[in-house]
Design goal:
2 copies of one chain form a homodimer. By secondary structure, the first copy, chain A, is an alpha/beta fold. In chain A, strand 2 and strand 3 form a beta hairpin. Chain A is elongated and about 75 Å long. The N terminus of chain A is likely disordered.
Chain lengths: 394, 394
């Protein structure tokens, strides 16, 4: 039906999750870096009309964490991104500050958005300039990346391409093939003509600009641009004569627009969240045996488990990751161990965990390893508060 | 960010589910009908490259039923649609026939698709002609609606608009506002210009044509059209001089394109599937009391429950609907009742049900009504095979 190549729509290395294994450096070997300052502006002033939800979509929770927090995290994990400015509507300033605190975002500053998309972005860009004046030693950011708060799956590799092209050309933007044929309509609502698909592309986010280009564009553009325009690339072309370099982005750049897109985002986040876990044994030899069996069998369900004795010392770093904790106990004090683990997890302010107990028949445990694994995996996948407190039988 | 109006992306009356309550007529009062023959062609020859899945997306299961079966059902439920032709790749002919049998589709015929979208649609249109020759008394369909197998949420109201406009104008098609800015690119990959968004629309499905227009369009078009074109409205304009009437469709017309869209479709189908259920009491007074309490409390979770004594006689019609059955038993023979109910359900070849048992404390049942309801709702929502056979405690 169209010439699009075979590309997955899920990030290979979702920026929102740690890419390093077992607490190693999050910087992947071979990952390129940039040697100039890069900052990010996230316009997030929207009111989410199209989702049909009360909450603006960037604040809708996905597994207890607002969507915008995933997006911010995707940028924070990129070592060469220096700062992030989020522009939100006045009534959401406090909410955004709470989110920053709760999810321990470090590189983010909140500014008040404007009444339109361009006004919000402009506020963000100006705030970057002020920031730089204060920290004069570092100078202005060389490149500003503009992205949408509701595109949480942006990856480092693509950000690198945009930053480099922006520095070189003054402006760069993500494009995607058109999904539908675009047609011109007559004023009476009839088909005028259809566009030759190959010549056109959908303009997506992220886009990158040198700081000078984007600042000038906003200094020179008209009130009408501010009120009715949406396309930064267009301003750069019209007011700075800068033709943006267009770079084909991956399908993962899609934007959460409708309520159904939240379900899609949830499924992608869930896939990552459920692909790993951490088994806590308390250190007893028997529990370690069970945990090792569980670890082996989880591979068949595409789940990778680490086995650790506790969450103390060096292992406490697991508490800072998005992680599923599984407590294995072989004695009646198991419930106490579970409660202690829960207290540790809750202390980190993370998305709520839903404790359940699976009974694993000690006599015939080898026969039921797969069953325990399946139930564990299902519980992790479904995260259902309604099942809290149930005893399940493997 | 754009001028789109506040419209939900979920169907108010999803065509895929019975709209009539409690077995009443499926034809809603006030629903308009058409007085000319209408048939449907569903091109479904695609190989699903963009989902990143092995199975072509139209055949991907959603709660045990292939996506295309939901789409077919949406058309079958429309009383004035006479027949549906599905064009599938040669290697999927048997699979499609199996689907028709398993899900008891009645109005559907399968034809072999072609190597491109236009060739598949053309085969479908020609097959409609042949069919009509055989059933000469009925004559050719006046209007042919063309739709995508991967847009399962099409609603009767919109089909009506397309059919009426097609009859009047010769051709009609669904349009949607553009989600992204469309830009023209230079051959070197730079921005040439961006399109004025207000003048353009995305062309979507369904589209409708009088039989004569669509047949002539395919008789007159070139091999190049067949191989590289995708837009039926364009053929009607170029080869029959027919300017299509363009009608703004609801967001529910979206197309399942990527793997993430399957998750979105699942969430919409789930919302409908989980919104109703049927409590079977066996007729004992005590069970009826419990069932009535459950029914009342389910309202708080947006779930509507019918209470019936059994699946016999008139109540057997519930077996023909997509339904969640909940067996309430107050004596030790409960498990037998459950087994008998399962046998009835399985005999209808429907999507598999996952039996679980919730223990409801008879002494203090009134206190735990909400808890039972929550657990029941969660089990229905999650449909997890891993929990089959568990005893849960309310």
């Amino acid at each position: 039906m169209d010439g699009e190549s075979r590309q997955p729509d899920r990030p290979a290395h979702p920026g929102i999750f740690p890419t390093g294994k077992r607490g190693e450096s999050l910087h992947r070997p071979g990952q390129r870096s940039v040697d100039f300052p890069v900052s990010v502006v996230l316009p997030a002033g929207g009111t989410g009309e199209r989702t049909g939800l009360q909450t603006p979509k960037q604040f809708c929770p996905v597994f207890g964490r607002p969507l915008i927090s995933y997006t911010v995290q995707a940028f924070e994990r990129v070592s060469w991104i220096k700062s992030i400015v989020v522009a939100v509507a006045k009534e959401n300033m406090d909410l955004m500050k709470e989110i920053i605190q709760r999810f321990q975002h470090r590189k983010v500053r909140v500014v008040q958005g404007g009444s339109t998309r361009h006004r919000s972005i402009c506020n963000g860009v100006l705030a970057l300039g002020e920031q730089e004046e204060q920290e004069a030693a570092e100078g202005e950011p060389k490149v500003v990346i503009i992205h949408d708060a509701v595109r949480p799956f942006v990856e480092e590799d693509f950000l690198f391409k945009i930053a480099m092209a922006a520095k070189e050309q003054g402006a760069a933007g993500a494009i995607r093939p058109l999904v539908s044929t675009v047609i011109a309509t007559t004023s009476e609502g009839f088909l005028d003509h259809s566009l030759e698909r190959a010549r056109y592309r959908a303009s997506e986010m992220p886009q990158g600009f040198t700081y000078d280009v984007i600042r000038q564009a906003y200094q020179r553009c008209t009130e009408s641009d501010f009120d009715f325009g949406t396309e930064c690339l267009h301003l750069a072309l019209q007011y700075c004569g800068t033709n943006a370099k267009l770079i084909e982005g991956p399908p993962t750049l899609w934007k959460v627009t409708y309520k159904r897109d939240l379900a899609a985002a949830e499924s992608i986040i869930k896939e990552s969240l459920c692909s790993s876990g951490c088994v806590i044994t308390g250190g007893s030899a028997q529990a370690v045996t069970l945990a090792d069996a569980l670890q082996k069998s989880a591979g068949a369900l595409d789940m990778e488990l680490d086995v650790i004795p506790d969450l103390l010392g060096d292992h406490s770093r697991y508490l800072l990751k998005e992680c599923n904790f599984i407590q294995v106990s072989v004695n009646p004090s198991g419930l106490l161990e579970l409660e202690s683990m829960l207290a540790d997890v809750e202390a980190t302010n993370r998305a709520p965990l839903h404790p359940l107990v699976i009974i694993w028949d000690a006599e015939r445990w080898e026969r039921s390893v797969m069953r325990v694994t399946e139930i564990t995996s299902a519980l992790i996948r479904e995260r259902s508060p309604a099942l809290v407190g149930q005893l399940l039988q493997a």
